[in-house]
Amino acid sequence: MSQDTSSSTATVPAGPAGQEAQHGDAFENLLHETRAFPPSPEFAANAVVTAEEYREADADRPAFWAKQARELLTWSRDFDQALDWSNPPFAKWFVGGEVNAAYNALDRHVEAGRGDRVAIHFEGEPGDTRSYTYAELTEEVKKAANAFESLGVAKGDRVAVYLPMIPEAVITLLACARIGAVHSVVFGGFSADALRSRIDDAEAKLVVTADGTYRRGKPSALKPAVDEALSKAGHTVQNVVVVKRNGQDVDWTEGRDHWWADTVDAASNEHTAVGHDSEHPLFILYTSGTTGKPKGILHTTGGYLTQTAYTHKAVFDLHPDTDVYWCTADVGWVTGHSYVTYAPLINGATQVMYEGTPDSPHQGRWWEIVEKYKVSILYTAPTAIRTFMKWGREIPDKYDLSSLRVLGSVGEPINPEAWMWYREVIGGGKAPIVDTWWQTETGAQMIAPLPGVTAAKPGSAQVPLPGIAVDVVDEMGESVPNGHGGFLVIREPWPAMLRGIWGDPERFKDTYWSRFETMYFAGDGAKKDEDGDVWLLGRVDDVMNVSGHRLSTTEIESALVSHPAVAEAAVVGAADETTGQAVVAFVILRGDAVDTGEDIVTELRNHVGKEIGPIAKPKNILVVPELPKTRSGKIMRRLLKDVAEGRDPGDATTLSDPTIMQQIAASLRK
Ligand code: 6R9
């Protein structure tokens, strides 16, 4: 059986019974976070969603989602049945309904007289800006839809998208959705080989790309990777559309390559959207498991749109007439699909889109953008927050951030210290933080506080959203009592759930539905606290076993980050002859901290000992200049483990900065 998310040696963080309980004790002490921040009375009074929604959803889950589907979307044909779960794990939501994603994101707002509202404020890295109203964005998408159709793309065909964070990315995705073509976005940071294997797996007919983009003030190329990917015969691509973004020279294949300006800009701006079946495929997005080839996660239309729109409204307390929303995620990540391309536009919000890195041309760029557009809802990743902590609070302190009223986090567990810093320094001590747990596979947020309802706890995603059935279970699939840890599972089908792995139904069943027969296995470890709130503990394969004690990488990292000298930390379990595994930590010191060599290492080891217990003290602590991260901000612990175990780290091509492993190696030789 192929298990992508859990190796055969994966361990439960703290099981409730027998031997597990014995190890559990050390683990139980690890989380002692007791702070809680209830919403202010003013916030609660104006919140768009109240606690009543939990009761309503619990009473009848499918009925709750059917109500949301009808309220949040305009259906061209109403559905007959909310959920068909007669053939698990293959769910059908809103059966018989027809809906067009692009019509819902665009045309209907224009028809309702909101065409003049800004949909996207775009900030290019070099400082160029463009804003699109809903009316303008609708026109662009209609043109792109016509252009793609004229290049032979029809309903059901796949389109590979290899674009930077520019409005054309959103336009391309919505144009595909409009005509029923299935988009497959490939991260701009991925190599030509990765692009080719994804093009082949989905048998894409069209590729949409750009000449290049800007990163850290420098042009960065994209088109050469497409050329290389298509250089070997045997692929299915007929045409390539190229956005001119950074003006660099590109090779050109006549007949195959077309400038965006010559095809899309020249196309007619009249295009009627027709409804597609609720279960019509909307997109494929590849995500890697720990082994094997990447999985093409398949999402369909009606359920996905319903849950992304609902969660975007409820979790961010969206007031579309007054809020300015900014999600910093790249469109190559699921967050850039659900919470940049689809939900904000379905909900008629005004959003900011930024092309570049946070330090270009200076380390205050994000806060300058927040001040300029009066951003009120910011959605970003813990890795970014920890980076800003490292740069120091003087930088954000220079800007007026008083417009911010809700702060979101996604992608990794957020360490309590980073959470507090986010709240105090960015949120002015009052903006609620919503830590949102979800996955490419879940399509939309699943566990998160509601900002007007939940008393937020630093470091915990806390509660399943209304209409979502989450649990933490032990090895046997039994629900664990409060105060215990185990595997995170989802007990009931949810509207935005993946419908499968492209072309591989068996792998879909094996990966997610065979660990516990009737429950979705997420691959994350989690713990319920005494209130029953859920704390995410990282992937189950990130759990270490040191002399029989189960230790979570996340918690040791949080302990390290709680020391004033540490900005970021990554912990791995390295093979050790005596203890099975040994804790090895990689830390980045804060900008103002002095690297005192051995002294700081001793101090940090003692600090972890004090925070968690002597068993958790890292055997080695290595001070490094950077950590290897994917472009979605997840630390690639696999590479650090190679370093910790003295191996040459293998393929690092999916890193946001592929030179980081060399930097780390150099700093360790010093
Ligand atoms: C949206 C996204 C999914 C994995 C997931 C988990 C981790 C995401 C988290 C979180 C703790 C959170 N994760 N959000 N862990 N707290 N708020 O990130 O999708 O790229 O597929 O990653 O990310 O481990 O299983 P994806």
UniProtKB/TrEMBL annotation:
Keyword line:
Ligase
Enzyme Commission number(s): 6.2.1.1
Broad EC category? ligase
Q: What is this protein called?
A: Acetyl-CoA synthetase
